[in-house]
Amino acid sequence: MRKENGITLVALIITIILMLILAGVVLSLTIGENGVFKMAKYSVQKNSEEEAKEKLELALADLTTYKYTDEAYNENEYINSYLEDKNMEVLGDIVTIDNWNFEIDRSIPSIKTSLGASTVKLTKEVKEYLGKNENDKYMVSVLVKIESNIKIESIEFENIDGTILIVTTENQTLAKDMQIELDKEYKITVKLANGKTQTKTIIERSVENIRTVEELVAFRDKVNTGLTYEGKTINLLADLDLSSICGENVNGQEVSWEPIGNGTDDTHIFKGIFDGKGHKIDNLYINTTNSYQGLFGYAKSGEIKNINIKSGNINGYYMVGSLAGGISGVTLSRVCNEVNVNATNNMAGGIVGTMDEKSTILQCYNKGNISANWNIDYKGAGGIVGQVANGEIVDSYNIGSVISSWYSGGIAGMVVKMTKITNCYNAGNISGKKNERKGGIVGAVNSEGGYLNLNNNYWKNNCGVVYGVGELMSNSGAIPLNETDIKKSEEKLGKAYSEDIVIKVIDETTGEEKEIWKYNNGYPVLKWQLENN
Q1: Which end of the chain is more exposed for a tag (fewer CB within 10 A), N or C?
Q2: What pTM does this model have?
Q3: What is the pLDDT of residues 80-101, one digit of tens each?
C-alpha cells in the first residue's frame, strides 16, 4: 500500500509539474511574442488589409473592362478619376484605401505589391460648391481632416493662389477649412515628430463618366449644390435602375427622385453637355407637389442627348417632363420617353414641361401617357412638350395619349411665343373639353405674342380631335391622315425617318410563328432607333 501511495505521490508531482509547464506554454501562447492575442490582433490587421485589397482589386477589374469598352479610357486621368470616385487616394502609382497602401500597375491594371498601413490618414468633406471665381475657375469649399498615429510637427499644402501654406500643430489630428479648385490636385506634406514625412493628395473631381446609380446621385448632388458643369461633358456609360433610391417602397418608405438641377437660377441648374450614349433609365419614380420635375429639373444653355427614360412613373405639380421640367437655350436630341407623366397643376410634356430661349428638340419621341389636370386658363399637356415659349421641334413624334383639362396637343400643348414645328407626327389619342382646346399637333396658340410656324406635320385623323391646331381651328402645316396612310408616311416626313421593321416570333399560346412590328406598331420610326439596335 505504501508503494502504491509512493507511486501515486510521484504521479501527482509529475502531473503538477506538467500542468505548470503546460500553463506556462499556454501563457506564452497567450501573451508571448507569438501569443494568441498577438496572432488575433495580426489576424484582424490582415483581414482589414485584405478587405482593402479586395476593394482595390474589384475596382481594377472594372477598369480592365473599361479599357476595352470605353474609348475615353487612358492610363492616367481616367484611372485616377475612377479610383478617386471610389474614395481611394492616388499619388502616382500608389493607391491608398482605408489607410492601406498598394502599388499598382497601370498598364494591366493590377496590384503590384502591398505596401502596408499609412501613418497618416487624410479625409475630406465637401461643404459647398462655390461656383466660378474671378478667373472663371470652379471653387469648392472642403473640410480637410488629417490624422496620424505619430505626433504631427507641421503640415504644408499649396494654397489656391499658388503659395505654400504651412500649418504647425502639436496634436495628432488637424481639421481645416479650405477652398480648392475643382479638378486640381493638391499635394499635402505632413512632417512627423520622428523626422519622417508623408505626402498625401486632395482633389475634388467633376464627374465626367457615370456608370452606377451612386455616381449619378453624386453628379446630381454636385449640380444641386452649385456646380453647373458649364463647358463640361458628362457621359452615361451604362443602363441604370433607380429602384434602389426612389420608388413607392424603398426601405419601407416612399422616396421621390430629386431632379438634377433643383432651381431656375444660374447657380443650381445644369448648363453642360449630358450624353446618355444610348443608355436607358429604369424605375424613375417621382411623386411630389414640387415644380420642375423630371430626370433633370432645369437645364440651361447646354445639350442633353441619347437617353431613354424606359420605365417608372412621374407625378409633379408644375412644369413636368420625363427628361426635364424646364429647359432654356438647350438642345435635346435623340431623347425618348416610355413612362407616364402627370402635372397636377400645369404643363406636362412627354419630354419636357416647358422650353424657351430658342431651345431645340430634335429627333425625340414619346410613348408614355401625358396629363395635366387643373382648370385654369393657359394650362396644358403635349406629347413632346407642355409649353413652348420660343423654340423649335423637329423630326419628333408622339404615340402616347394626351389629356388636359384645358389645352392638349399631340406635339405641344401650348405655344406662347415664336415656335417652329417641322417634320413631326402624332398618332396618340388627344382628349380635352372642347375642340378649340385640343389639336393633333398643337392645342393652342397664345393670341398675345404667340407665333406658330408649322411645316410638314401629320396627325392621325381619328385621334379625338378635329383640327391640327385646336385654338386656331386650322390644319395649315398639320395634315390629317388615316391610320394606313400615316403608317406609310416615312417618306413624307423626311430623311430622319424609316419604316418600322417586321420580325417573326413564336406565339406562346399556339406555338406558331407570327409576324409583328419590332419598334412602333407599324408607325414610322427614327433611323437612329434602328442604328441603336
Answers
A1: N
A2: 0.81
A3: 988 988 889 898 899 999 889 9
